[in-house]
Design brief:
The structure holds 2 protein chains of 2 kinds.
Chain A: E1 3-6, E2 10-13, E3 18-22, H1 36-43, E4 52-58, E5 66-72, E6 78-83
Antiparallel strand pairs in A: 1-2, 3-4, 4-5, 5-6
Chain B: H1 6-13, E1 32-38, H2 42-55, E2 60-63, E3 79-80, H3 87-107, E4 118-122, H4 125-140, E5 146-149, H5 150-156, E6 172-176, E7 180-181, H6 184-197, E8 201-203, E9 208-214, E10 217-223, E11 226-235, H7 241-247, E12 254-264, E13 274-277, E14 282-286, E15 292-302, H8 310-323, E16 332-343, E17 349-352, E18 358-362, H9 372-385, H10 399-402
Helix pairs in contact in B: 2-6, 2-9, 3-9
Classes of the chains: A mainly beta, B alpha/beta.
Chain lengths: 90, 418
């Protein structure tokens, strides 16, 4: 069982959250010419490495806010959680 | 190498089975090979076997970080099927079914292939329509498919919950009679033994540290047991694909996720089919030892842990008990996990890469075991001929760029919910 510290609600069990994928992926800026490669990187390509991983979770059975979580993909240790609008430091 | 036969069995019985040949050697890596396969799982071993058998390329090494067959080929739920709708998936896996049927004779190794049939249960009229469509697509591709109504399903699996007052009543199901199971370890060992016999070096406890790439060409691989030169290198590392891709400065449409499986205590024969629950994600079969072999959803977040978390297991088994209530009486014997290379459209990649001499075999999601022979056969062809075979032409890496996705389930890029 993972325990995730929601920045809005505090420490809660994994059962209250749903997963939203890699949080380091950024949508190409609107209004600019976007190359196919940039779109591929946004839509499909993922690093998905062993170790520290910034990811999105939604506190669906709680405050319903999206949050960012830094978790180790091998040990499941959670290092840090942020609100969705806070920038991650890679 | 001694042939496995009843005569040799009797002969060796006389000497207390102490004089059998080793099934494969433990060689020291040479400085150079024609082909190096990274990953000594089912797909890697099968690739080496078909390189030697079909293409007469025997100066081949398989390098494996751990021991052969210790990854997903030893961790799956042994299901073999070809019940796909899209042509590329259907024809590829039906080609594989043919190799499965001949495998024990081909490898002189009993892989205990058991074509017992698979039933996908339907729990609504809409789902029956969907299954009718999938069944028709399968039959157009020459694959056997039978649409069963509620009574027919009840005849075959009476232990499922057919009571009226349930959340997901059984409306019927789609059966592929020729699908089944095989002994997973035997598949790895059978391929290893034959590949070794034809001259392939199986090098275990040998970790890849880096690659030697220059001017867009692969020249070799750096390992924990020294540098090995090769003009052709094939990656067959399933859940570890992204780790090696990073060493090659590649980013792939793959995420690594964890899938759990479990077995119950052994019980007397009760279930002679593979059955899947249609209102969630749960599948079950009974092993030859009597254990109920079960699996279901991914753990739901990127993971390299190779062991599972309890909430997912609880969720999966809740579905199992909803489908077959007698399961609640069984004790759990073992649970375990394997790391899956989840591709962004749910279909695999067997292709060349932008680096000359580097070949990629990944993205099997949780369907890797059944694909073992077809994957090895087509990957061997791709490496030996330096071009993809018709059978794996749909499994290209650039389909994510061109838009020719093979999204069998229509789920999109959220790999963790598939």
């Amino acid at each position: 069982m993972l325990y995730i510290k929601c920045p809005h609600c505090g420490m809660r069990s994994q059962n209250e959250f749903s997963y939203g994928g890699d949080a380091s992926v950024k949508r190409p800026e609107l209004g600019k010419e976007v190359s196919d490669q940039d779109w591929d990187n946004f839509v499909y390509n993922r690093k998905s490495l062993r170790g520290k991983h910034w990811e999105l979770w939604q506190h669906v059975s709680g405050c319903r806010q999206w949050i960012k979580v830094e978790r180790d993909t091998a040990t499941h240790e959670i290092f840090k959680t942020l609100k969705a609008n806070e920038e991650i430091s890679l | 190498m001694q042939k496995y036969s009843v005569f040799n069995l009797i002969k060796n019985a006389l000497s207390n089975h102490e004089n059998w040949d080793l099934a494969w050697k433990d060689p020291t890596p040479k400085k150079e090979y024609d082909v190096v396969i990274i990953g000594g799982g089912g797909h890697g071993l099968a690739t080496a076997y078909y390189l030697a058998k079909e293409h007469k390329i025997t100066n081949v090494a398989i390098i494996e970080k751990g021991w052969i067959g210790g990854g997903n080929v030893g961790r799956n739920t042994t299901i073999i099927r070809s019940n796909y709708m899209h042509d590329d998936n259907a024809l590829f896996s039906e080609f594989g079914m043919d190799l499965w049927r001949r495998m024990s004779q081909d490898l002189n190794y009993n892989v205990m292939f058991s074509p017992r049939g698979i039933i996908n249960l339907a729990h609504s009229d809409a789902q029956m329509n969907t299954y009718a469509r999938r069944g028709n697509s399968m039959r157009l591709n020459g694959i056997d498919a039978v649409l069963l109504n509620r009574e027919e399903v009840k005849e075959i699996i009476p232990m499922a919950d057919f009571s009226e007052n349930v959340r997901f009543p059984i409306f019927g199901g789609l059966m592929q009679p020729s699908a089944g199971t095989a002994r997973h370890d035997a598949v790895a060992w059978g391929y290893a033994r034959q590949a070794d016999d034809m001259g392939v070096d199986i090098i275990q406890n040998c970790e890849v540290i880096g690659f030697d790439v220059s001017a867009g060409k692969i020249n070799g691989v750096r390992t924990s047991r020294g540098d090995i030169k090769a003009k052709k290198i094939g990656l067959c590392v399933a859940g570890s694909t992204n780790i090696l891709a990073e060493k090659l400065n590649m980013t792939l449409p793959i995420e690594t996720h964890l899938l759990q499986a479990c077995v119950s205590e052994p019980v007397k024969p009760v279930l002679d089919k593979v059955v899947t629950f249609g209102a969630g994600h749960f599948y079950i079969s009974q092993s030859d030892k009597g254990e109920m072999v079960m699996g279901g959803d991914l753990d739901g977040y990127n993971s390299y842990a190779q062991r599972g978390n309890l909430p997912t297991l609880q969720h999966v088994l809740t579905e199992g008990i909803a489908m077959m209530p007698f399961l609640s009486k069984l004790k759990m014997l073992r649970t375990w996990g394997g790391i899956m290379d989840m591709s962004m459209d749910g279909s695999p990649i067997i292709d060349k890469t932008h680096i000359e001499g580097l070949y990629l075999n990944c993205g099997w999601c949780y369907g890797g075991f059944k694909a073992t022979p077809a994957s090895g056969w087509t990957f061997a062809h791709t490496i030996a001929q330096d071009r993809v075979h018709e059978l794996n032409s749909g499994y290209s890496l650039n389909r994510f760029n061109t838009g020719h996705l093979l999204d069998e389930k229509g789920l999109g890029t959220k790999t963790w919910i598939s």
